[in-house]
Amino acid sequence: MDDVLHIASLVVHARPELFEAVKANLLLLDNLELHQHSPAGKLVVVLEAHHEQQILQRIEQINNLPGVLNAALIYHELLAPEGDSP
Q1: What is the pLDDT of residues 1-48, one digit of tens each?
Q2: Fold annotation for 5-79
Q3: 58-86 pLDDT, tens digit each
Q4: 71: left (phi over 0), alpha (psi -120 to 50) or beta
Q5: Domain segments of the chain: what residues?
Q6: CA separation for the pair 60, 75 (Å, rounded)
Q7: What CA–CA distance (Å, rounded) separates 20 from 15?
Q8: DSSP string, the chain
Q9: Which of 10, 30, 47, 58 is deepest in the core (most CB within 10 A)?
């Protein structure tokens, strides 16, 4: 079970006037990638973690960043090594 990888995709909505600061703060977080963003303050973020609780903690952490209005989970997948099932 330790080899299971959780992949989660989020949409993060930020205040447009703090958008660059939010992006900079997100880039400081481990196991997080920014994929798309819009001038309206929306970002697509992908997280990787070995435990579901880590995903939930990261979402809470993102929601608490200055300038973030909301971080919403859009997709969650479990990846297990071939031949194993989570």
Answers
A1: 568 999 999 999 999 999 999 999 999 999 999 999 998 999 999 999
A2: Alpha-Beta Plaits (3.30.70)
A3: 999 999 999 999 999 999 999 987 765 55
A4: beta
A5: 5-79
A6: 16
A7: 10
A8: -TT-EEEEEEEEEE-GGGHHHHHHHHHTSTTEEEEEE-TTSEEEEEEEESSHHHHHHHHHHHHTSTTEEEEEEEEEEEE--TT---
A9: 10
